[in-house]
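Chapter summary example.
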Amino acid sequence: MSNLLNRIEKLIKEISGLDAFELISETKHGWEFYFIKGKLDQNRVTDEETVTAKLYLKSKEADGKEFLGSASGKLYPTLSDEEIKNKLMDIRYRAGLVKNPYYTLTDIKPDVPAKLSPVDISKVSGDFIRTIKELPANALTDVNSFEVFVSSVTRKTLNSNGVSYECAYPSSVLDLVVNAREKSVADGRGREIELYRILTSGTCDSDNLKETITELFNFGTDRLKAEPTPKTKIDTVILSTQDACELYNYFIMQMNASYKVRKISAYEKDVPIAEGRTGDKISIKALSSLKNSCADYPVDEEGAVIRERYLIENDVPLSFWGSRQFMSYLGEKESGIVRNVSVDGGISGKAELRTGDYIEVVEFSDFQVDPMSGDIVGEIRLGYLHEGDSVKIVTGGSISGSIVDVLPSLKFSSETKQYDTLVIPEVTRMEGMRITGVV
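The structure predicted for these 439 residues follows.
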């Protein structure tokens, strides 16, 4: 246990009137690299330690109804004991202003061993840099700049019920700017564009990263050839990039206990999410571990074990997930804040889904799926319009629709792909969408 965590726990026990507490200590040791045009511009080492303290106060009204208030704040090693105590008193005061229906903190001690395997941030950083530098040189496309942030994170959770768990895991971020240009750019008459990505992961999957950047090069080259999206009667949209995660996140969040308690989600256990569907059945599984995820740990921030289970199986909701507070409101004995999730693939291969008339959008200026209404909107930056025997590279215009529109015939490929904490079908086909052209 860190010295800071020891100090805070000792000071908390000196505060009278507290009913419960939860402490989350997080220590990050990181390396950062900043490259411009393939050359190292600067690098630095970072070390950070914080403890998030959450304090709880119980209250009771005249009719005997009980409530639990809570508030939290972050504390740092540079604070003196007196400063820490003053901050704790402020947190205690704010907790007294809150009245939530009563619940208890996690009291089931984790039955999994501590996960404290060392993280070699030197190797992970080197893997990122080497992978990008190994990309073949091209006069028309290149990596303009990139930033690599690799951290070894150690987290310890403990609460007043005696629950305690410690784990260590890698967390990485790659900021990437790719340039694409026309052949005539050298004489001042050509165009040049940038594509930007923020890629998160645990460590570096070199093969996947090379594939992603090569794909970006191709998108950039095609974007320079794109024509304005025409008006069309086509209503089928295919998603095959990370934007599709937004669609699947909608279903994942419908199984979040807080959404259910707040009546944002209408999903019910053992009741199919839709009737008369002709598309693929949706099956979504919570994972206790996922290799190369930036959140590969088996116990959540509250000290609850994350059990591997289906949240939805063959269109049928089976298990909600979430914090101790909202899971207890649903009458669930165990909680678990899910981070890693996989969506089962569909019946058809991705080639089978890419048939008929459709638009495949690979770059959006903005793409959103409203977590409450299920409304889908996206501004097309780059798409491929398949109509009859022709394929047009297009830009501009938009797509729109809703989960209600697309769910009856929603299909997804048998092949899957990982995007950090999510494994989803590689290709998703939505029908019943509206495609707005610009000409």
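To summarize the output: The longest helix spans residues 206-223.
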